[in-house]
Amino acid sequence: MRTLLVMCAAAVAACRTLAAAPTAGQPDFHGQAVELVAKMELEEKVLQLCFDAPAIERLDVPKYNWWNECLHGVARAGLATVFPQAIGMAAAFDRELMHRVGETISDEARAKYNDFSARGQRNIYQGLTFWTPNINIFRDPRWGRGMETYGEDPYLTGELATGFIKGLQGDDPNYFKTVATAKHFVVHSGPEQGRHSFDARTSPRDFYETYTPHFRKAIEQGGVWSIMCAYNRYEGEACCGSPFLDDLLRNKWGFRGYIVSDCGAIEDVYHRKAHELVKTAAEASVLGIRGGTDLCCGNAYEELLSAVRDGLIEEREVDRSVVRLMEARLRLGLHAPQGTPYDGISLDVVDSPKHRTLSLETARKSMVLLRNEGQLPLDRKIRRIAVIGPNADSPEMQLGNYNGFPSYVVTALEGIRRKFPRAEVVYAPGCALADGMPLF
To answer: Residue 312 gets which letter from DSSP?
Structure first.
């Protein structure tokens, strides 16, 4: 039986190797990445594993910052079409709509990147690797950020994430339009205050039926090229340093891309107030690399230089991660002198009438009326309306988080006044918002 299982595993691995091999006429991005990394010095390799990777001018490798966001529109980079927050889009229960939203966002992402790179700007929120979508299963309200997710159901989450990822990454046979990142792997849904030290423990059934099927679908059906590992531990092991989780992603599910840490997650591995699984940044970095985490959002991986020199890890292990990152950059066409099919996308598409129309359609489909006992729709003859709530006249609250900035915003109060121009609309905050962090 064991021999048969080994033979089956070998057959599966062989099929994946054949599937990964470039067909005639397609670039061999993996081979190009291997050749490029072979020309790098150790220090150059180590710095490429940090999210704000410096240029290697002698090899014509430009500077690249891996951190970008597009949860419901291109975020933190000025004007953009802003879609409903993720939990709202999920309420539409529409796979095809999510795909169209992803396509629209990636068009604007490419337009912004084309403009930034033409001006030599390669900083945070200016690249093509997006740390989106958040596919955590939202079952604990103490996390406080459930609006970033598609809710509590793994089937719905997987279906919507797959459509969104395909829209973001595009359908060109050679080049990605952007790279999507499914996050946070895995079982990252507990209280926000304890996320840096929490050790998640589940039954095997709950792990495979609740917390992982949507990640598997994002890989096998969505072709996602990046996974972000979570802050917490799972069954005692750091999610950003677990050989078990890496084996699950790559060997069991066929994931071919790269894994990026959540920001500061490698530091959590050795910090006294977090996991403290090891004592030093160098040891934590070794654990991260060997656990499959290729890219560090933080500074810990800078210690890999001394870790290699001190014999804690071999240089070839570092090479493996650098190759994965360089392959992703090549697949995006970031080093392609001949250009990509997406180079002609201009800033004209950003916040265009067509994109605003899709945002409106998405907003309408996202609305959920829980109960109507005859009050709605409001009679247009109503003479006096009271609008009460501290966020009713707040433009900022319309944007959600991880957001871009639309050309105009209509608050709830303004919208009601527009719909009832002849009525007296009075407004009161009703209560004040709490200052600082929410209480748990």
So the answer is: S
- E strand or H helix at 256: none
Contacts of range 361-367, beta carbons closer than 8 Å, 24 or more positions apart: 361/97, 362/83, 362/84, 362/88, 362/89, 362/92, 362/97, 362/101, 363/83, 363/84, 363/88, 365/91, 365/92, 365/94, 365/97, 366/84, 366/88, 366/89, 366/91, 366/92, 367/91
pLDDT tens digits, one per residue of 389-407: 999 999 998 999 999 999 9
For residue 78, which amino acid is it? G
Catalytic residues: 262
Q: For 200-256, how does the pLDDT look when each residue is reduced to its tens digit (9 = 90+)? A: 999 999 999 999 999 999 999 999 999 999 999 999 999 999 999 999 999 999 999
Contact predicate 327/81, CB 8 Å:
no
User: CB of 295 within 8 A of CB of 258?
Assistant: yes
Give the tokens for residue 155.
């089937």
CB 342 within 8 A of CB 177: yes
Rounded distance between C-alpha atoms, residue 288 and residue 231, angstroms: 12
- The H or E element that residue 286 is part of is helix 281-290
Q: Which tokens belong to 411?
A: 């608050």
How far, in Å, CA of 339 to CA of 235, rounded?
A: 46
Q: With a cut of 50, say whether residue 425 has pLDDT above it.
A: yes
Residue 359 CB coordination number (10 Å):
20
The one-letter amino acid at 409: V
Overall pTM surpassing 0.90 (yes/no) = yes
Structure tokens given for 150: 């598609």
Q: Which two tokens stand for residue 194?
A: 């304890």
What three-state secondary structure class fits 295?
strand
Indicate if the pLDDT at residue 74 is higher than 80: yes
Closest CA to 73 of 400, 332, 365: 400
Which parts of 341-418 are beta strand (E)?
384-388
Closest CA to 189 of 155, 231, 244: 231
Q: How many CA atoms lie within 13 Å of 127's alpha carbon, on the beta-carbon side?
A: 24
Which residue shows structure tokens 């917390």?
211
Residue type, 97: L
Phi then psi for residue 167, to 5 deg, are -65, -40
- Pairwise CA distance, residues 345 & 117, whole Å: 13
How far apart (Å, rounded) are the C-alpha atoms in residues 227 and 238? Answer: 15
More confident position, 192 or 378: 378
- Distance, CA of 387 to CA of 57 (rounded, Å): 59
Residue whose token pair is 């403290």: 276
Residue 285, token pair as written in the block: 């970095």
Pairing of strands 52-53, 64-65: antiparallel
